Amino acid sequence: MAKVLCVLYDDPKDGYPSSYARDDLPVIDHYPGGQTAPTPQGTDFTPGHLLGSVSGELGLRTFLESRGHTLVVTSDKDAAGSVFDRELADADVVISQPFWPAYLTPERIAAARNLKLAVTAGIGSDHVDLDAAITHGITVAEVTYCNSISVAEHVVMMTLSLVRNYLPSHRTVLDGGWDIADCVARSYDLEGMHVGTVAAGRIGLAVLRRLAPFDVKLHYTDRHRLPDEVEAELGLTFHASAEEMVPYCDVVTINAPLHPETEGLFGDKLLGSMKRGTYLINTARAKIVDQDAVQSALESGQLAGYAGDVWYPQPAPADHPWRTMPHHGMTPHISGSSLSAQARYAAGTREILECWLEGTPIRDEYLIVQGGGLAGTGAHSYAVGGRS
Ligand code: NDP
């Protein structure tokens, strides 16, 4: 029988919801490109309910306990002697979400003698030390595509919000003001601007598709080029590297995984090569940018705005400098955890567990590490210790 340790974010401050703003969710059974949404044998939750917090339990308790397995759910993950550290010692499976990551460091992996499977209930397994997972023969899986469109929508929202100076204007209303000039002195139209994405995978391409109707000029860089017909359809300009692309852009959006090739990519040098007044949106991972360099670029005016929802570490401390830097539109890490996304990644997590417990293959598209090496999506999109 397996012990499953699930690390989730805390319930709402006012308690687990007893009702919701809407009564149903649209049914999404496949994603752009044809991949099917998760297909577990069953689910024990109501789509649209809060599943990603401790009391939501990703809807897994009945499923696991009825089969004799143990489920431990906690949000206590970082402090010395945390529940996570204590329970990890004999856990077979760890599940966590990028929004509230249970950092599986080499030391923790070495201490987790029974650990065989690390599941990301979402996308992005950089909180797991993949080299250590490979060395210890641990399978790492995530629910590929489950929240890619959720994030793409967030990127579009943040792009418009920064360019049009939405948040300060909303603040004016909350403060009882009507200061039109103050609001519009930093407000522009997106129309005609050059927008570039670093990576055009599931999220990056979805962002390009969603922004195309705004009559912008679209750029991208990626390790692999998109098909000619997609480039032609969206009028895309391909650049061989981020260094080559960013000087052309008014807006840059980062949609690559965090791995050795992308860590620290946006430092003083790359930010300094951008047009003065560029907007930078990062919903990928905080460590792809240099935290201090972003703050300095906002203070100097090199960046006109920075927005995103990814921080390091998470949760961000109350005095994190990004909370108070100028012209930012940060949110906590929420873009991929809408109630809509939660229903998909809870179902995907259950699908992965069903496969693992029954000894049937986990979908290739969900695999990051398996059998002592990168596998599936991991082999395509990640790099480890110089391997890719
Ligand atoms: P995909 O795997 O579909 O796309 C990632 C893309 O990044 C691939 O096209 C890959 O290239 C490309 N890439 C990898 N390395 C580089 C590089 N060095 N330079 C340029 N491009 C590179 O993933 P998604 O689009 O679904 O997600 C992307 C990332 O977004 C995730 O890894 C995660 O970190 C983050 N994310 C954030 C969420 C949030 O809530 N904020 C939620 C979901 C994801 P190729 O495959 O061509 O080699």
From TrEMBL:
<comment type="function">
    <text>Catalyzes the NAD(+)-dependent oxidation of formate to carbon dioxide. Formate oxidation is the final step in the methanol oxidation pathway in methylotrophic microorganisms. Has a role in the detoxification of exogenous formate in non-methylotrophic organisms.</text>
</comment>
<dbReference type="InterPro" id="IPR033689">
    <property type="entry name" value="FDH_NAD-dep"/>
</dbReference>
<feature type="binding site">
    <location>
        <begin position="333"/>
        <end position="336"/>
    </location>
    <ligand>
        <name>NAD(+)</name>
    </ligand>
</feature>
<dbReference type="Pfam" id="PF00389">
    <property type="entry name" value="2-Hacid_dh"/>
</dbReference>
<dbReference type="Pfam" id="PF02826">
    <property type="entry name" value="2-Hacid_dh_C"/>
</dbReference>
<feature type="domain" description="D-isomer specific 2-hydroxyacid dehydrogenase catalytic">
    <location>
        <begin position="63"/>
        <end position="362"/>
    </location>
</feature>
<keyword id="KW-0520">NAD</keyword>
<dbReference type="InterPro" id="IPR029752">
    <property type="entry name" value="D-isomer_DH_CS1"/>
</dbReference>
<dbReference type="GO" id="GO:0008863">
    <property type="term" value="F:formate dehydrogenase (NAD+) activity"/>
</dbReference>
<comment type="similarity">
    <text>Belongs to the D-isomer specific 2-hydroxyacid dehydrogenase family. FDH subfamily.</text>
</comment>
<feature type="binding site">
    <location>
        <begin position="257"/>
        <end position="261"/>
    </location>
    <ligand>
        <name>NAD(+)</name>
    </ligand>
</feature>
<keyword id="KW-0560">Oxidoreductase</keyword>
<dbReference type="GO" id="GO:0016616">
    <property type="term" value="F:oxidoreductase activity, acting on the CH-OH group of donors, NAD or NADP as acceptor"/>
</dbReference>
<feature type="binding site">
    <location>
        <position position="381"/>
    </location>
    <ligand>
        <name>NAD(+)</name>
    </ligand>
</feature>
<dbReference type="GO" id="GO:0005737">
    <property type="term" value="C:cytoplasm"/>
</dbReference>
<dbReference type="GO" id="GO:0042183">
    <property type="term" value="P:formate catabolic process"/>
</dbReference>
<feature type="binding site">
    <location>
        <position position="148"/>
    </location>
    <ligand>
        <name>NAD(+)</name>
    </ligand>
</feature>
<feature type="site" description="Important for catalytic activity">
    <location>
        <position position="333"/>
    </location>
</feature>
<feature type="domain" description="D-isomer specific 2-hydroxyacid dehydrogenase NAD-binding">
    <location>
        <begin position="156"/>
        <end position="335"/>
    </location>
</feature>
<dbReference type="InterPro" id="IPR036291">
    <property type="entry name" value="NAD(P)-bd_dom_sf"/>
</dbReference>
<feature type="binding site">
    <location>
        <position position="147"/>
    </location>
    <ligand>
        <name>substrate</name>
    </ligand>
</feature>
<keyword id="KW-0963">Cytoplasm</keyword>
<feature type="binding site">
    <location>
        <position position="309"/>
    </location>
    <ligand>
        <name>NAD(+)</name>
    </ligand>
</feature>
<dbReference type="InterPro" id="IPR029753">
    <property type="entry name" value="D-isomer_DH_CS"/>
</dbReference>
<feature type="binding site">
    <location>
        <position position="123"/>
    </location>
    <ligand>
        <name>substrate</name>
    </ligand>
</feature>
<feature type="binding site">
    <location>
        <position position="222"/>
    </location>
    <ligand>
        <name>NAD(+)</name>
    </ligand>
</feature>
<dbReference type="InterPro" id="IPR006140">
    <property type="entry name" value="D-isomer_DH_NAD-bd"/>
</dbReference>
<feature type="binding site">
    <location>
        <position position="283"/>
    </location>
    <ligand>
        <name>NAD(+)</name>
    </ligand>
</feature>
<dbReference type="InterPro" id="IPR006139">
    <property type="entry name" value="D-isomer_2_OHA_DH_cat_dom"/>
</dbReference>
<comment type="subunit">
    <text>Homodimer.</text>
</comment>
<protein>
    <recommendedName>
        <fullName>Formate dehydrogenase</fullName>
        <ecNumber>1.17.1.9</ecNumber>
    </recommendedName>
</protein>
<feature type="binding site">
    <location>
        <begin position="202"/>
        <end position="203"/>
    </location>
    <ligand>
        <name>NAD(+)</name>
    </ligand>
</feature>
<feature type="site" description="Important for catalytic activity">
    <location>
        <position position="285"/>
    </location>
</feature>
<dbReference type="GO" id="GO:0051287">
    <property type="term" value="F:NAD binding"/>
</dbReference>
